[in-house]
Amino acid sequence: MMFEPSLTKGVLEVFSPVHNALSTADEQATKAIDIQHANIHGVGDFSIWEFSGNPVYHCSYDYFAANDVTAIHLVLFSLEEPYETQLGHITYWLNLLKALTPPQDNIAFGGRIQQLLEVVLVATHADLADITRAFSGEFSYDKEKALLKEVRNRFGNDLQISDKLFVMDTGASNSKDLKLLRSHLQELRANIISKCSPMTQLSERLLAALPSWRKLSGPNQLTSWQQFVNDVQEQINPLVSQHHLRTLAMQLHSMGEINIMQSETVQDVVVLEPRWLCTNILGKLLSVETPKAIHHYRGRYRLEEVQALAPESDVEELLQILDAMDVCARDITSPSMVDVPALIKTNGLHRSWTEEEDEDSLIYGGVRLVPAEHLTPFPCGMFHKLQVNLCRWSHQQKPEEEGGEDSDGDIHLWANGAKVSQAGVEAMILLVNHGQGVEIQVRGHDTERAKCYTLLDTICTITENLLASTLPGLLTAKYYLSPQQLREHHAPIMVYQPKDFCRAQIQRESSLTNTMGGYRESFSSILAFGCAEVYQQGTLATDIHISEVPLLARRKLCRMLDPPDALGKDWCLLAMNLGLTDLVAKHGNGAPNSNPDSDSQQAELQPSPTAALLQEWSNRTNSRVGVLMTKLRELGRRDAADFLLKASPVFRVNMEALTGAPNGYPPTCNGGTSYNSISSVISR
């Protein structure tokens, strides 16, 4: 995993997911995911999956990266870049690996993860960066200790990061550094294999049958899990059970022979030849070298063009799987067209709000979603996937008879942006701050306040559902934008954070000071477009129930409060302050005695006492965020209180109760998987 050299033109540009450098073809750049089976001399056999650093391909990575605990993840960065850029690149990739790892429902002691992904950091271009060699012969990088310390501080709880940084001149294949890396890979490989089940005779026969199955599978190397089971039972062993076969299939998945794809929309699809999908299909479909027509700059393909890129494939079946992967969206209104947002080159919008004459009767509001833990951009492909989901949602909204310009359900896409409309209300969805935030801005007439809130809530739900299903390990925070500055098209815009609302609420205030504009704005106007029906149905900041705090945020609180504190400022005292003294006796000796990094600790993690405490306390009547925040402050744990503030929701509305409001109506997407499971995939 490494950004392509042609793209690393400085830290800001490299994180801007659509960058001018993308339009230039680079012959040497990796296309999508390059897969090869290789024997590394003196180490053994590996299936090597090289993920392109070109952000145009990233919208498919959630199906192939970090989905196998037996893999070793090499993260590469160039020493030709400044130190801050190196750290930025490493943080980006490690945050992606962390974000792709689903959290376990049962939180372990200290919020630890059962099986951490193995990560090795490799610094390249040592020869070009004039790195000196130590007396023993290997490169000596003066910032190695500082870099490793910083990276481990940020990700040490979530990923198993090797203790050594490997500094490379990849042109020198017999160098001491490459020998050290080979030796380390051999060590990791032996350790991983010692914990894996050995190959059985049945798995050997299954492996031998794969080449002929690939030939027989026709143009597409896809099959459903049920068909895979039937084939094994018919051709190899009629007595094999589904459960046993899943174990064998996971072995083949770990060997890179097949890929088992799992998500809400792709359930148990088996890719018999991963190279076919990862390199041939995605590499061609998303390549910048594809011949250009005008509609390609808008990220659109005609069906026959997709067929030309994959001449051997069954296009309908292929598009079903790509649609379910959120790589592309079919346009229901013109079935011969396919939207591929990752390919959009057009910037800006013909009619952005700043250029329009504003009517006095328009009201504005909006939110910004940001990663809560690390100051790093969202994984590049996330916004492309969001654009696909917005296309899908907007196609559902379209009435049978076609309206004129900006009719209901219309969507306009451009690089890093989208604009949708519903019931006379408009929304703009933008990737801002060099990829570090997603902004959703909504406007409508002041007679449509409830509809404005409903559209904002719907698009937030689509975005949050997408993040939960594709980046389950990424914790986000929701900030609110100044309605008055949005209306005045003022830049930069004042952003209100959860802590601002909590402080004001504790002081019994119902408005916030806009320090940029020098005026106050009411909670109602910031959170609910000034709509009394919506605002009165809502629960605010400190009054929100503790069960609404996301699982990832609770896990982080467990990391802070589980370890015993010398002054007693840990979960024990918190339990007593919350009136749950019986839990102290029950979990009192819950701190593991073993070294947290030992194998025994990895094998059997003890449950988190803080998680048990929060679960038990959530059954009490006063279990609100504000109460817990106050108790943490009294305990002297301002760090935990501040984090709780940052990660907690600010405003929750019961949308069902709102449907009775005069201007309200039920949102078309209500937080389930309805919008996200439109594709009838081959797995079904």
TrEMBL record:
Xref: SMART domains: DEATH
Sequence segments annotated as region (Disordered): 587-609
Domain Death: 565-648
Comp. bias regions, Polar residues: 591-609
Keywords: Inflammatory response, Kinase, Nucleotide-binding, Repeat, Transferase
CDD domains: Death_DAPK1
Keyword Kinase: yes
Superkingdom: Eukaryota
Residue ranges occupied by any Roc domain in the UniProt entry: 1-192
GO molecular function list: kinase activity
Keyword Transferase: yes
Family matches, as PANTHER family: DEATH DOMAIN-CONTAINING PROTEIN, MYD88
Name of this protein: Death-associated protein kinase 1
Species in which this protein is naturally found: Characodon lateralis
